[in-house]
Amino acid sequence: MYYLIYFAIIVLIPLWAQMKVKNTFAKYSRVSVANYRRGAEVARGILDANGLFNVGVEEGRGFLSDHYDPRSKTVRLSSENYHGHSIAAAAVAAHECGHAIQDAEGYAFLRFRHLLVPVANFGSNASWILIMIGIFAHISGMLLLGIIFMAAAVLFQIVTLPVEFNASNRAMNQVVSLGLIGNREEREARKVLNAAALTYVAAAAVAVLELLRLVLIFTGMNRNED
């Protein structure tokens, strides 16, 4: 019974967060900003105002595929946000520019997250192989090694939280101070960014819960061996 409740939680939390961001984005993608600026124009305005003339703004592919690429110094916006002149487009564009500003300033958590990328990628791929072998073969040492690798991936998700929240705060400060959205539109833009942040919070929460469950399995296995 407890396992059914647990698995329901780790499935429902991410689904709820994804539905929240999609519904919020859909709502505010239909509300135009008063100045009718496109997302690409909002991004370019923020970057230029911060002296980031070397950072490009490009149209990307895929729904809500918006991101900042630190390797090519490029803000890539999905078609909806690149061409759109909605509150949602402005908020998302500003958020990605927040990452560009973080990169230019050497924001500590962003640099730490970049360092964790190869470790987290390896950990997320290798951990479950070791964990499954450890559980089914009753090899506690193998399970522990898998847990350690998974912990690296979980750490990456936890470090992502301050990076994303900081980018959103920077985004709101930029769009308001530069007059890229009106004062009355600030609340709606913040709702878009808060909904997007929920997906990262949900992912981190589920990852921590799963890690704790495996730690309990490991301690139980050791107790049985004793």
TrEMBL record:
Keyword annotations of the record: Membrane, Transmembrane, Transmembrane helix
Keyword Zinc: no
Cross-referenced InterPro entries: Zn_peptidase_2 (IPR007395)
Tree of life domain: Bacteria
Residues annotated as transmembrane: 128-156, 192-218
UniProt entry tagged with the keyword Transmembrane helix: yes
UniProt-recorded name of the protein: Zinc metallopeptidase
